[in-house]
Amino acid sequence: MLSFRFLHRTITNINIIIIIIIIIIIIIIIIIAIIIIIIIIIIIKNHLIKYSLPPGSLSNRI
Question: Which pTM was predicted?
Fold first, then answer.
């Protein structure tokens, strides 16, 4: 009975650890996704700025 209780507590602790690990992984994925989205937005903005300029100024820069 005592060993069963100890085993049950150990399983509960393992479950809590697994849940914490999953939450950490989800947070990391969300942070990476936000960073990627920000990078994509910056690239698109740079593209729009580049192509919204008059052709003459663009060719002068190159």
Answer: 0.56
SS3 assignment, position 38: helix
Q: Which residues of the chain register pLDDT less than 70?
A: 1-2, 52-62
Two tokens, residue 9: 């507590």
CA angle at residue 18 from 26 to 20, to 5 degrees?
50
For residues 58 and 61, give the distance between their C-alpha atoms in angstroms, rounded to a whole number: 5
- In the numeric block, the tokens 């690239």 are attached to 43
- For residues 24 and 17, the answer to whether their CB atoms sit within 8 Å is no
Q: For tokens 């989800």, name the residue.
A: 26
